[in-house]
Design brief:
This protein has 271 residues and is α+β, with helices and mostly antiparallel strands. It has helices at residues 3-23, 27-42, 45-52, 58-69, 75-85, 92-113, 117-133, 135-142, 148-159, 165-176, 183-197, 213-227, 258-270; strands at residues 201-207, 231-237, 245-249, 252-255.
């Protein structure tokens, strides 16, 4: 998002966090309602433009929100959206994307209230690794000629017995309403949002073989010192790395795998 949209989202997030603390276990329900509002905006370009028109008074836009959604979603959701449309948005699509982000945050807040946010974060990581490991499944998730609902049902059937409801809601939403980038990158991003709620960074580690608990703990300590913040280590296995490990924290990648070193030697040798 550009600066004005990001500022609007940051302000809305701060206000919404206070509402989520009061809502407690209702966070998932509020998240579902925010998804519905986002879907309404996605389906109507004229409505998005009306709600983000900088020439239109903010109060007029807020009244339009109340007229459209009052009595259909919770009062907290109406108040949130009414406040958001008073802000300035760089592009009309940004409002819907911001609502999508706040909906995901709401579902994660519900998991946090229930004391299972860490488990949801770990489950999202396992779904990401499942997609990374199963090429055919990953390809199916990309096939837009297959109905999105069928694709979501397929992935849900694979995780339903092992995943919390919050995990299933998030995964289904990411399949049904894809954003820019891959499903795996979207899962990684939501995992990072979950970690941020627990005031931790996420280190996604790819290694040739499983790490012991002592090795994971040692790696977490090293990364915590390096970044000055507690780091959650998620380990995925990929025999093709041949040795060493690849560590990604946000956009930063530390690649010490054997395959990378071999590729580097080959590049130097061939000039």
């Amino acid at each position: 998002m550009r600066a004005s949209s990001q500022a609007a989202l940051d302000a809305a997030t701060e206000r919404w966090e206070a509402s989520l603390r009061e809502a407690g276990a209702r966070g998932r329900e509020l998240g579902s309602q925010l998804f519905e509002v986002a879907d309404t905006l996605t389906g109507s370009g004229s409505l998005r433009r009306a709600l983000t028109d900088p020439a239109r008074p903010g109060e007029d836009k807020a009244q339009l929100v109340t007229a459209l959604f009052g009595g259909k979603v919770a009062d907290e959701v109406v108040d949130l959206v009414a406040g958001m449309v008073r802000s300035r948005w760089s592009q009309d699509e940004d409002l819907g994307h911001a609502l999508e982000d706040l909906a995901l945050i709401s579902v994660l807040a519900s998991a946090q209230e229930a004391g299972r946010l860490l488990e949801v974060e770990e489950q999202l990581f396992r779904v990401e690794r499942l997609l990374a490991a199963e090429r055919e499944l990953r390809s199916t998730m990309w096939r837009t000629e297959i109905d999105a609902g069928r694709r979501a049902d397929l992935l849900d059937s694979l995780i339903a017995s092992r995943a919390h409801e919050e995990t299933r809601v998030i995964v289904r939403r990411l399949v049904m309403v894809p954003r820019a980038g891959s499903l795996t990158s979207a899962l990684r991003r939501v995992g990072e949002i979950a970690a941020a709620r627990r005031q931790r960074l996420v280190a996604n580690v790819t290694a040739a073989a499983p790490l012991t608990q002592a090795q994971e703990a040692r790696l977490a300590q090293i990364l915590t010192r390096a970044y000055g913040s507690e780091v959650q280590v998620n380990v995925g296995i990929d025999p093709q790395v041949l040795g060493g490990m690849r560590v990604q924290v946000g956009a930063e990648v530390i690649d010490g795998t054997m395959i990378t070193r071999l590729q580097d030697v080959r590049r130097r040798f061939t000039g």
